[in-house]
Amino acid sequence: MTPIMSKSDAAALVVASRIRRGLTWAKIAEEIGAPIVWTTAALLGQHPMTQTQAQQVCRLLELGKDVAESLQLQPYRGADQAQLADPTIYRFVEALSVYGPALKELIHEEFGDGIMSAINFRVDISRRPDPDGDRVVVTFDGKFLDYRC
């Protein structure tokens, strides 16, 4: 019996096939009927896909059953240190370092004692034209979970 392919190996095959076939993340997300950011994160190893989703992606990308099997596994979530040093990712870390305490205060003021769920969560990205240069708009949409005794 052979071991199940790692999620990182499956992700590398997905990325290579996507690029070689000239497909966008948006096209893949449309094909499986899932949000683009979630789909991209799942294909990079951060979420498990259903069997149907994994099979659809592998058909589209002409990848094998071994990749589909890996895409369905529960992940170990998070980023490694090398990824955190990437300038795009680091700017998110920087933004949360600067604005995180203010956002925490504002969440507590508006909602009370609790947190924003990262499980019952949606994230979206869009482009907004601006005369000084296009703006990146990232929306975090998480359910409020109050602390209870």
Topology:
Elements: H1 7-20, H2 25-32, H3 36-43, H4 51-61, H5 65-71, H6 81-84, H7 87-111, E1 114-128, E2 135-146
Antiparallel strand pairs: 1-2
Helix pairs in contact: 1-5, 2-3, 4-5
Question: Nutshell version of this structure?
Answer:
The chain is an alpha+beta fold and 149 residues long.
What are the salient characteristics of this protein?
52% helix, 434 Repressor (Amino-terminal Domain), 18% strand, 7 helices, two-stranded antiparallel ribbon, 2 domains, alpha+beta, cyanate hydratase activity, 149 residues, Cyanate Lyase, Chain: A, domain 2, globular
Number of strands: 2
Give me the number of helical elements. Answer: 7
CATH topology of the largest domain, what is it called? Cyanate Lyase, Chain: A, domain 2
Uncertain segments: none
Cα distance spanning the termini: 49 Å
How much strand? 15-25%
Q: What percent of the residues sit in helical stretches (DSSP H or I)?
A: 40-55%
Into how many domains do the coordinates divide? 2
Look at the structure and give the CATH class of the largest domain: Alpha Beta
Order of helices and strands: HHHHHHHEE
Main sheet properties: 2 strands, antiparallel
Strand arrangement across the biggest beta sheet: 1-2
Q: Give the class from helix and strand content and strand pairing.
A: alpha+beta
CATH-level-4 superfamily name of the largest domain: Cyanate lyase, C-terminal domain
CATH architecture title of the largest domain: 2-Layer Sandwich
**Tertiary shape:** globular
Q: Give me the Rg, rounded.
A: 18 Å
